[in-house]
Specification:
single chain; 28% helix; alpha+beta; 12 helices; seven-stranded mixed sheet; seven-stranded antiparallel sheet; 407 residues
Length: 407
């Protein structure tokens, strides 16, 4: 039987559409298949509906992987500036919001339309909604099983994303396809996700929901990698948000990708101030109660909650406190070590950590080295970016190099 397509791309999200458009522009007959009826829902909801479509500072250091250098090649071949050139071509107004994060002025729908138009310009064919049941290798090429019948193709690109946000259709299809070809999977878990706490030690902080402040947060050891090579140390300065179930905000989402279950995160709630030294130096000149002193630097509810949680009476007078006690209080604010009991899981996670082991793939083409013609791109792969547009840049870059490499 003659092949119907040169390329079948499974997954019409950010990486999939980029790959399909690039391959089609090179003259390939491309079919894009997705089980969803609505195109690119994850792009649509990203960035509060304005799509944080890249980060101008994106580099390999902004990604988590057991093989952290893997993403260097793709990111250097298709940069944030390259994607920005495409955005400008379509006259999509945009702005930089924070630390290199670029957003649409209007709507994420503009990015979806742009990618759709790029695909259509290359003659990409679409099959949506269409559920893929599996992929099998033929003597030449592959057959993709779908609920609309089998599809023959010379190449298959798996761009099915991860497990995060199942309510918009996330599945484990990409990992199942990889396993069916004997490829390794790095254990998956939620990333860029709020962390949860329970038990008596957290009770004083439950009423603090809604409080936000800029903090420094870190976890792990600076000595380097763990036994399996995963990144073990993370450090960020971002906003923290207290929730009813634990902690969230950019600081926690960032550190969650480095946090290992059972280990602490360390928060510095006043990064600009050595609290112990300031309190000790003020003992002779300040006659205020501890709660009032801390409320000069922290939200009043948080100051009181921290004092109670650490065994201090908020109405205790600063001059009456021993230096050793004040140093203990300083540590509780500048080096607050707490162990999360878990996270909010895939339902609240923005990304999935882990995925197809990059040691199974060519970093120049994203093709599986054991299975010529089979490619994995985007979030399906064990490459996870920081919060702030980095994951979209990985989608564009990995999709571009795969689309450029398919023969």
């Amino acid at each position: 039987m003659a092949r119907r397509y040169d390329v079948v791309v499974i997954g019409a999200g950010a990486a999939g559409m980029m790959c399909a458009a690039v391959a089609a522009r090179r003259g390939k007959r491309v079919l894009l298949v997705d089980h969803a009826a609505k195109l690119a829902e994850k792009i649509r909801i990203s960035g509060g509906g304005r799509c944080n479509f890249t980060n101008i500072n994106a580099g390999w250091q902004n990604f988590v992987s057991e093989n952290p250098h893997f993403c260097r090649s793709a990111l250097s071949r298709y940069t944030a500036q390259d994607f920005l050139t495409l955005v400008k071509k379509y006259r999509i107004a945009h702005h930089e919001k924070h630390r290199g994060q670029l957003f649409c002025d209007d709507s994420s729908e503009q990015i979806i339309r742009m990618l759709k138009d790029e695909c259509d310009a290359g003659g990409v064919q679409w099959r949506m909604p269409c559920k893929v049941t599996g992929v099998e290798q033929l003597s030449e090429g592959f057959v993709v099983g779908t609920d609309d019948g089998p599809i023959e193709t010379g190449n298959v690109v798996v761009a099915t994303g991860g497990l995060s946000i199942p309510k918009i259709g996330a599945t484990d299809l990409g990992y199942r396809i990889a396993k069916s070809f004997g490829l390794g999977i790095v254990e998956t878990r939620p990333g860029l996700v709020p962390l949860t706490f329970d038990g008596p030690s957290w009770q004083p902080f439950v009423p603090l929901a809604g409080i936000a402040l800029e903090v420094e947060v870190e976890t792990g050891s600076k000595k380097g990698k763990g036994a399996k090579g995963e990144a073990r140390y993370g450090h960020f300065r971002e906003d923290l948000l207290f929730t009813h179930r634990g902690l969230s905000g950019p600081a926690i989402l960032q550190i969650s990708s480095y946090w290992q279950p059972g280990t602490p995160i360390v928060l510095n709630l006043l990064p600009e101030l050595d609290v112990a030294e300031e309190l000790i130096a003020s003992k002779t000149s300040v006659k205020k109660q501890l709660g009032n002193v801390l409320s000069q630097w922290l939200p009043a509810r948080l100051a009181e909650g921290l004092l109670v949680a650490n065994g201090f009476a908020p109405d205790a007078r600063l001059p009456d406190m021993a230096d050793a006690r004040l140093r203990k209080l300083g540590d509780a604010i500048n080096r607050w070590a707490i162990v999360p009991t878990g996270s909010e899981g895939y339902k609240k996670a923005e990304v999935t950590l882990g995925g197809v082991d990059t040691r199974e793939l060519s970093q120049q083409t994203m093709m599986a080295t054991k299975v010529p013609g089979l490619y994995f791109i985007g979030e399906t792969v064990d490459v996870t970016g920081w919060l702030g547009g980095y994951n979209f840049q990985w989608a564009w870059a990995s999709g571009y190099v795969a689309g450029s490499s398919i023969e």
